[in-house]
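Quick illustration, no need to memorize.
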Amino acid sequence: MTRGPDQRGNATLVARTAQECAFDAVALGEVMLRLDPGEERISSARSFRAWEGGGEYNVVRGLRHCFGQRTAVVTALADNPIGRLVEDLMRQGGVDLTFLRWIPYDGIGRSVRNGLNFTERGFGPRAGVGCSDRANSATSQMKVGDMDWDDLFERRGVRWFHTGAIFTALSPTTADVAEEAMIAARRSGVVVSYDVNVRASLFDGGANRAHAVEVNRRLVGQSDVIFGNGRSFVSALGLRDVQSASSGPERLGSKDDLTLESVASAFPNLRVIAATVRTIQSASRHDWGGICWFDGDVVASKVMASLEILDRVGGGDSFAAGVIFGLLEGMPVKRALQFGVAHGALAMSTPGDSSMATLDEVRRLVDGGSARMTR
């Protein structure tokens, strides 16, 4: 399915062509209703702006909106007005909803509901805050056998499949659903990516965290590409901390080189490991960049120093979308990484989980353009 770099150093990771596939990328995950109090606090706000959002969905939404890729999401919603609002928001984003499953609603959510995510952006010394209300959601109740993966991956055709650790932590069944999908995708020659994460709010004790590490390791073993924060890979995958041994140059991300190499050594099935790297000066100002391991080589982006942040939620998902676009296009890995960093930076300049960036804006930023007004 996967191949190494060509003679020009381009990433020929993607084996299936656009012509033979109905979709460039498909994601598996939960889509929640995000309620945003703007510049106020959740606890004192009297109005909220509504968005759709979810870690896995954000990736394919960015691929569709910014990069013009044909994308779809596999998810589920309770069939009530909240679910229909989320559907309407997703339709505006352009992601194909053929594989959205509607679950009958019982009137008050005894058996099923839709996930809500209240999010404060933060500013200056005040950190952002996320308050999820998502237990017993329709997506969390997905189970093995619900989806005909062979129909999607083989008969319809998909080039890239993406899921992540947030989806797998929703319930005792979701990790098995992800694994079922990943195995079917690999069987059909589809590139599989996985966002490595251990979200503290989804676990309530040490035993559960240990289970999260076990799930991450199992599913990274089924992946070709993984995304995450370089310094979180160690804890999320239960690896020995190698950062203290790093003696590289003092630059943003220099201590992540050995981490990525350690992950690659532990999981020889991986072809690409891509990580965001950020130093947080305040909630509204970060040093931002990325680092990527590909077939034994580590490349890093230029640092965007003191990047001004409006809303950091979704920045990592937009980074993943930019990298995936570059790899789907057969770009050299370093340029694909730059597309990820630029797209993530632009996504964090607007409110909401989803990218509002255009491909021209991403290219201009990658090529060193300024923020001068375009008229």
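Residues 244-253 have pLDDT under 50 and may be disordered.
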